[in-house]
Amino acid sequence: MQLAERLGRLGTETAFAVSAAAADWAARGNRVYPFHLGDIDLATPANIVEAMNRAIAEGKTGYCPAAGIAPLREALAADIGTARGIELSAANIVVQPGGKPVITKFIQTLMNPGDGVLYPNPGYPIYESQIDYFGGRALPYRYHETASGFGIDLDQLRELAPQARLLIYNNLQNPLGCESSADEMAEIARLAVEHDLWVLSDEAYFEMRYAGSSTSIASLPGMADRTVILYTFSKKFAMTGWRLGCAAAPVAVGDQIAKINTNDESCTTHFVQAAGVEALRDPSGSEPILAELLRRRDAAVTALAAVPGLTCATPDATFYLFPNVTEAVARTGCEGVAEFATAALHHTGVSFCTRHHFGSAQPGEPAHYIRLAYSGISATDIAEGIGRLADWVSAR
Ligand SMILES: Cc1ncc(COP(=O)(O)O)c(C=O)c1O
């Protein structure tokens, strides 16, 4: 069979292989503590579910405009604009089936083959996959461990920026859980303006925070006209499987993204969009979701403190932890972090991703890291699972 040549350049989320290994271990009768997938095991708020049912009963089951229904575009413009202190109108909003399509449509709209694209490493793996698939030049920029978490290697970013036409920036960050300081974000914006870069600001976790407030790079001087914001309902409203999000973009870019919508999926499901209007009208159902995630974060951080050879920052945002396990790996006699992950699953049932699921390690990276997602596991199971991990590492 002869498949399209470009498929050789299409990547995937290798984290799904971790799911398969965990499922296999569970199928053999073992207890698994799932920290590997960034899905949420909490219910979508009732008012949103009811709005969807109403919309179906009212017959909102046909095609609708490619860029989204007017009430949702208006509500999103108001919500995203107010939260970020930027001027948006409905014309800036192009509704999508989830946040992820904004990544590919940003690249399809603004990148020509051979263009350099800066993107975070470690980072969400779909960036690199889509850059390669559409023939761009992948320019990963590094995050490094700091006293309080992780930060961007700005020297490296400054060095790479002249080769780039696009920049992908994910603040608040998956998998690191970190966020930029004001200075770091200002420097990224300065580089974007200096080198005339288009910016994808992936704000999937903008509202997933337990303290402080989020800033969008789109609100910095010179940025509004060169930034496409990725917004999603997936995390805030526990709606990962509903597939609802949008691009907030300068109108000329948004119009092209809407044209891609027409070619790709025609429109986002009408009754799901109607439910999105209700989510924004009464977002109070997101509060217990965030409160539960905070309980889980605290349970995880407390339990991790008892694992020998593991250090972990406490991020105020996202639902990810990215502990440094260099000494724990050595202690268990594992060859590397991949072997450590397999051994941890088999000895303790704790399942997690490693740094390698989020882009190739850059030359000279000295430490081993794992990523724990606490969105799909209860606080009780978090304490129990990590307790087993601590006992296993302690005994080695
Ligand atoms: C950084 C980042 N961007 C985008 C997405 C995609 O979100 P959605 O599920 O809304 O497509 C995710 C999902 O995990 C993510 O972590």
Architecture overview:
With 396 residues, the protein is of the alpha/beta class. It has 13 helices and 13 strands. The protein has helices spanning 15-27, 46-57, 70-84, 100-110, 126-133, 154-160, 182-194, 251-264, 270-281, 286-304, 326-331, 337-348, 379-394, and strands at residues 33-34, 93-96, 116-121, 137-146, 149-152, 164-170, 198-202, 227-232, 245-248, 320-321, 350-351, 353-354, 370-373. It has an 8-stranded mixed beta sheet with strand order 2-9-8-7-6-3-4-5, sandwiched between helices. α5 links the parallel β3 (116-121) and β4. α2 runs antiparallel to α9 (270-281) and α3 (70-84) runs parallel beside α9 (270-281). It is globular, with a radius of gyration of 21 Å. 49% of the residues are buried. The chain binds pyridoxal-5'-phosphate (PLP).
List keywords for this structure.
396 residues; globular; binds pyridoxal-5'-phosphate; 8-stranded mixed β-sheet
Summarize the helices and strands and which ones pair or pack.
Elements: H1 15-27, E1 33-34, H2 46-57, H3 70-84, E2 93-96, H4 100-110, E3 116-121, H5 126-133, E4 137-146, E5 149-152, H6 154-160, E6 164-170, H7 182-194, E7 198-202, E8 227-232, E9 245-248, H8 251-264, H9 270-281, H10 286-304, E10 320-321, H11 326-331, H12 337-348, E11 350-351, E12 353-354, E13 370-373, H13 379-394
Parallel strand pairs: 1-11, 3-4, 3-6, 6-7, 7-8
Antiparallel strand pairs: 2-9, 4-5, 8-9, 10-13, 12-13
